[in-house]
Amino acid sequence: MDPSRDNPIIRFATFFWGLGTFFIFALIFAVIWFFNHAKPASMEDAAAIPRYATKAKIDAAEAANISPEAIEAAIPVLSKSLAASKPMAVEVPAQIVPGSDMAKKLASAPAVDTKAIDAPVASDAPIDPAVMELGKASFMLCAACHGQSGEGGLIAPPLAGSVWVMGPVSNLIRIQLRGLQGTIAVKDKEYNMPGGMAPLSFQSDEQIAGVLTYVRNSFGNKASAVKAEQVTPLRGEVGKPQITAAELTKP
Ligand code: HEC
């Protein structure tokens, strides 16, 4: 038998060797864990760290440079875009609670004189190509339902050759701001699509003017341009139920 097993000094020392080894391994694992833990998980994360640091420096420098005058000047712009981004319009009259603030607001809203908006404009007035470009970009949205060339289809009537499109501007603006429901005759055909057309009032006045100018002057259509100043006075229409053909001005 190994005589060391009975030697209390050797047994005592062996116990501490064991304990020491345990702590050394524990320390190594703790060090590995600590450094892995703090390390970014991927190359992208590693690259992002200096980018965030740089961005924080730029943000701080920019914030320090904004003058109180610049902040004051930005407030009307910001509040205008906030006001324009009203919550989703109420689509059905039944959804407006009678006696509610919304019902009162809509009832007391002064009727906008659409005559001024629809005042005839010389049809040969030149159209700003930048407005057409803006309109073309927004038209992607309309194309989903009305077709790439405004030819219409199973889900929406045509815009190409439609008297509504080339007719009074206020009709088109109100359709954008309120949507449209019920029967509407387009190119000798009656349409009454389930659900109608939803309001697209999230667009800015400039976007609405652009897209309407674009549809009035594309696919063989020819009509005057629409100006953002014609859209602005009708903003109060937002939130009213989807408009019907009967409420529109006859083209
Ligand atoms: C989700 C589908 C959809 C989208 C997107 C859409 N519309 Fe419509 N639109 C309709 C439907 C459906 C009708 C017919 C509603 C009805 O039956 O009463 C309609 C009707 C119209 C009308 C009147 C009828 C006509 O054809 O002349 C105009 C004008 C019009 N839309 C313009 C636009 C414009 C401009 C856009 C893009 C900014 C647009 N629509 C986006 C579905 C859509």
Question: In words, what does this structure look like?
Answer:
The chain folds into 2 domains: 63 residues; 152 residues, Cytochrome c-like domain (Cytochrome Bc1 Complex, Chain D, domain 2, Orthogonal Bundle), CATH 1.10.760. The chain has a two-stranded parallel sheet with strand order 1-4. Strands 2-3 form a two-stranded antiparallel ribbon. The model has no long low-confidence stretch (mean pLDDT 86). Helices cover 52% and strands 4% of the residues. The termini are far apart. Helix 6 crosses helix 9. The chain is mainly alpha-helical and 251 residues long. The protein has 10 helices and 4 strands; from the N terminus they run ααααααααβββααβ. The structure holds heme C. The site of heme C has 29 residues, from helix 6, helix 7, helix 8, strand 1 and strand 2.
